[in-house]
Design brief:
Elements lengths: L19 H23 L9 H9 L8 H14 L12 H11 L2 H14 L4 E8 L4 E8 L10 E7 L6 H4 L3 H12 L2 H12 L1
Antiparallel strand pairs: 1-2, 1-3
Helix pairs in contact: 1-3, 2-3, 5-7
Length: about 200
């Protein structure tokens, strides 16, 4: 059975940028429901005992998702999202990550502009991602609807922002662009992104 993992920091650690009340609902209710429902869906099936990543790839079913896909992908996406943030985050990346951003987007500022635009223009519910394309050895921005993520495209996710309304509504109401800016300026963990890139390029 999959277990709901806590975020890698206390629930109030991202205040005032992301409130403990948002965590109460977003992690405590939404994320928990994805994990609980997934466990019910796979119990006693051939998916029981597989990793979350394997379940996502199998149930994506080449774009015709099977019933367990949404809960599996959302369970994975949320854990990845919590780990994409840290208290006193933001700032700029460094090292190989910054070099690749400069190479593939022209500059860090250009990347931020594109990432914010991808997150702001994802219609309805979904996610915006920085991903690594292993075949081309390049970074790419991806926006995905609902539960989808770059794993199903064969890419390695490096960073994500959740743009489902439940991610920001208690703190920002309908001001999605403000939430996205705060995420980039105050919350993103470039250390986490760098370590994911290192693993992807090893």
């Amino acid at each position: 059975k999959f277990e709901l993992q806590p975020p890698p920091y206390p629930m109030d650690a991202l205040e005032p940028h992301m409130s403990s009340r948002t965590f109460e609902f977003h992690w405590g209710k939404h994320h928990r429901a994805y994990v609980d429902n997934l466990n019910k869906q796979i119990d006693g099936t051939e998916l029981d005992g597989k990793t979350l990543e394997d379940i996502i790839l199998v149930t994506y079913n080449k774009g015709a998702p099977l019933p367990a896909f949404n809960n599996a992908a959302q369970a994975w996406n949320h854990q990845f999202f919590w780990e994409s943030m840290k208290p006193n985050g933001g700032g700029e990346p460094s090292g190989e990550l910054l070099e690749l951003i400069n190479r593939d987007f022209g500059s860090y500022d250009a990347f931020v502009k594109e990432f914010k635009a991808a997150a702001a223009t994802q219609f309805g519910s979904g996610w915006a991602w920085l991903a690594y394309k292993p075949e081309e050895k390049k970074l790419a921005l991806v926006k995905t609807p609902n539960a989808e993520n770059p794993l199903v495209l064969g890419y390695t996710p490096l960073l994500t922002i959740d743009v489902w309304e439940h991610a920001y509504y208690l703190d920002f109401q309908n001001r999605r662009p403000d939430y996205i800016s705060i995420f980039m300026e105050k919350l993103v963990s470039w250390e986490a992104v760098s370590s994911r890139l290192k693993a992807a390029t090893a």
